[in-house]
Amino acid sequence: MRHIISILMENEAGALSRVAGLFSARGYNIESLAVAPTDDPSLSRMTLVTSGTDEIIEQITKQLNKLVDVVKLFDMTEGEHIEREMMLVKVNTQSKNDREEVKRLADIFRGRIIDVTKDTYTIELTESCERLNAFLESLGNVSILEVVRSGVIGIIQGDKALTV
Amino acid sequence: MELTGAEIFTRCLKDEGVEYLFGYPGGAVLHIYDALYQQKDVKHILVRHEQAATHAADGYARSTGKPGVVLVTSGPGATNAVTGIATAYMDSIPMVVFTGQVPTSLIGNDAFQEVDSVGITRPCVKHNFLVKDVNDLAVTIKKAFYIATTGRPGPVVVDIPKDITAQKAKYAYPKKVTMRSYNPVIKGHPGQVKRALKMILGAKRPIMYTGGGVILDNASKSLTDLVKMIGCPVTNTLMGLGAYPATDKQFVGMLGMHGTYEANMSMHHCDVLIAIGARFDDRVTGNIEKFCPSAKIIHIDIDPASISKNVKVDIPIVGGVSNVLKEMLKQLKETGEKPGKKSQSDWWKQIEEWRAMDCMKYDRDSVKIKPQNVVETLYKVTKGDAFVTSDVGQHQMWAAQYYKFDKPRRWINSGGLGTMGFGMPAAMGVQFAHPDKTVACITGEGSIQMNIQELSTLKQYGLPIKIINLNNGVLGMVRQWQEFFYEGRYAMSYMESLPDFVKLAESYGHVGFHIDKPEDVEGALKEAMKIKDRAVFLNFITDAEENVYPMIPAGAGLNEMILI
What span, in angstroms and rounded, lies between the C-alpha atoms of B301 and A55? Predict the structure, then answer.
């Protein structure tokens, strides 16, 4: 099953490689990984998406907790949560038809066209991972030139918060 | 007053109470060596290879419970130390390794003797640090010792660039450090302990399976008390030998691949398994699908990640072994409940039947020297009171099987990583820690050659280590597997061109004995014990055909042992 694990860790050089190294050394999957400092500059927040059986996920959370740089972590998938990922897509819009179709789809998916050239549109979309996939699929025959995704981030729904 | 980084380093070690520093100098650590030269508190031991420095520190740590401390230079100094760091990591040994590094301005420039030490050691340390500011040096060293020695112990590497050791800062060694991200759970949950006790008291066929964690947490006394109160059998892992007196009747021997028949059969047939400071290693469980089919499992361990990693556990107790066992004893006394002797009488009857199989028998009338006999005789001659280190292979198993360890921290071997070349340097560390005790290194002609250069260190410090070389002329364990599983195709397991070990030892000023007759074994060992001012190399020519029995072949369960 797919899990979104949020990790608060010391914002120190090498912290990211400790997590990445743990996953490769123990043969765990990483589907995506996003990391940036929080409002407290001494803390980084990392969101990683992984998948595995309950036993593997239990080992992953235990092994992550064992890393000295990890302050706290939470498996978002255990409860109600909101997940978001940002995607930038550059598509070929040489034909009028494609230009209209892309504009329409961007509106339906609540995306924004953020760059326009004679031959291309660049769309920005912030949604759940699933919705982003749906958008790419719906582009159908439109020729995609480039896809950039930020990796998933997540937050607990309601008044609970993951803080130190 | 301000001190240089190098002076801060030596002051930190002094204030941390470090007695010995095992190391080897080089360019990046020259400032530190200069500072060491000008002080008397920390004694530096010069080895002949950085790997040996880490093993010596490791032996010191295992035999004392105090952290082993190492200093090596950058680049090859650090990479040579990696095997010893990984060895300590796999066996959870507290160790702090200081590696020199090129000056901060050169890091990343492929400078002379530069290597990413933090990157290379990351997967085999508990934690590591790169010191980038001399003002952080003292607190980083304090953290390193704190992390290495608390919770589940392990090695910590501190990488120190050369310019940091020249810069100056005010010195203050913190008495205590706290880290918001590191708070090991020491106290076991009393409710879980209560549940576990209930299960143990209701058991008909209980067994305690204990590992290195009992020794690391100095919990032997509590374990022994508990085993006595419960009246159940107890088995030790390779790492756990000595935690419970091997000569006691309730001890059924080591378990696992080369464990006793009675230990493995008791494990297989138990109804309640109490695992204490052990981690269900594959060499212990055999085929995991067939492991303890009718057992409820209680697991006490300080590392939550060890629990339910290989085997699903019914009652987990996270906490320091010593604390949990004390809590268990306390609750047991409070309730006044005791398992009646009768309730386990059928169980013990069965165990005695297994024990009567005498799985450790071997040919005592052989005209060739049997390696088992050498170990048994060593046990007799040293009255079971020696510190015994070993290398890795057949001799290691024979040492574990035939030397009966009644005390913890006496048996010192590389169980997890299985590092050949561990034995002699580890023995050096043990001898420094226990100058008046007998230290024997049981080894083979393969392993001993992996760090043979340390004969020179033995000479320099006059260490009277007894090297028991079980020389069968082959890489015995490799040969055994080739005999069993590769139809006798002995690929590269034959040791050609062996040196004359006696002459080699003598060339360093040690004493060398050549022993090739069974009747000379005891005399030679007795003679060796009389020599107190230098090392003795006893080269026993042993039977190359001898194999380690009993054995659980790969893929089999604990009840499917091959006996002789």
Answer: 18
The per-residue pLDDT for range A62-116, each reduced to its tens digit, is: 999 999 999 999 999 989 999 999 999 999 999 999 999 999 999 999 999 999 9
Q: Give the number of other CB atoms < 10 A from CB of residue A118.
A: 6
Q: Is B403 exposed, middle or buried (0-12, 13-18, 19+ CB in 10 A)?
A: buried
What's the gap between Cα A129 and its chain centre?
7
What is the ipTM metric for this complex?
0.92
B466 catalytic? Reply is no
Residues forming beta bridges with residue A44, ordered by sequence position? A9, A37
**Residue B260 is which amino acid?**
T
CB pair distance less than 8 Å for A13 and B181:
no
From the list B327, B64, B78, B286, the residue with the least C-alpha distance to B192 is B327
Name the residue type at position B17.
G
Within an 8 Å CB–CB cutoff, is residue B310 touching chain A?
A: no
The edge-to-edge listing of strands for the beta sheet with B439-444 is: B411-412, B387-390, B439-444, B466-471, B536-541, B511-515
Report how far residue A121's alpha carbon sits from residue A145's, in angstroms, rounded to the nearest whole number.
Answer: 10
> What is the CB neighbour count within 10 angstroms for residue B50?
27
Tokens of B35: 């500072």
In 3D, which of A74, A14, A5 has the Cα closest to residue A34? Answer: A5
List the strands of the sheet with A2-10, edge to edge. A32-37, A43-51, A2-10, A70-75
Say if residue B550 is preceded by a cis peptide, omega within 30 of 0: yes
Residues B183-229 pLDDT 10s: 998 899 999 999 999 999 999 999 999 999 999 999 999 999 999 99
Q: What are phi and psi of A29, to 5 degrees?
A: -85, 145
Q: State whether A17 and B119 contact (CB < 8 Å).
A: yes
3-state secondary structure B274-334: EEECCCCCHHHHCCHHHCCCCCEEEEEECCHHHCCCCCCCCEEEECCHHHHHHHHHHHHHH
Q: Which residues of A touch B (CB under 8 A)?
A: 9-10, 13-14, 17-18, 21, 25, 55, 58-59, 62-63, 65-66, 68-71, 164
Q: Are B232 and B338 in contact (CB under 8 A)?
A: no
Q: What is the DSSP letter of B179?
A: B
Q: Is B113 a catalytic residue?
A: yes
> What is the value of pTM for the model shown?
0.96
| C-beta of residue B394 within 8 angstroms of C-beta of residue B422 | no
* Helix, strand, coil percentages in chain B from 3-state DSSP, rounded to 5: 40, 20, 40
Distance CA A94, CA B474 (A): 75
Under DSSP, is residue B262 helix (H, G, I), strand (E, B) or coil?
helix
B50 is catalytic: yes
